[in-house]
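Our consortium's second objective concerns turning raw sequence data into structural hypotheses that experimental partners can test. To show how far this objective has progressed, the report includes one record in full. It was chosen at random from the queue rather than selected for favorable results. The single chain below, 107 residues long, was entered without modification.
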Amino acid sequence: AIRASVLIACGLESYRAAHGAYPSELSDLVPDLLPLIPPDPFDGKPLRYRAGPRPTLYSVGPNRVDDRAAPPRNPSSFAALPVRSILASAQGGDWILYAPPAIQGRE
């Protein structure tokens, strides 16, 4: 998911630089900027994307439920867990992979 999010984030920023805004859908990046949209490792579907001035790219996370980019209920608990435990966790919430910071004067 991290590798995929870096590729998509680069595609999103390249698209924004060329068009002045982020794309309305991730499929707008294909094939000019990306050969395909990488799948979410948790459910095999394309990673989720919410368009807008500050778009959000996210994974459904270990619970495999699309919580519409809501973060885990207790994200601090993940920091102390080994990766294997995180993947086995059934905590709710999605993994936010990319959300650019606000640009002054634009939200």
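The partners drew two points from this record. Residues 77-90 have pLDDT under 50 and may be disordered. Residues 2-19 form the longest helix (18 residues). Both points have been shared with the crystallography group to help prioritize constructs.
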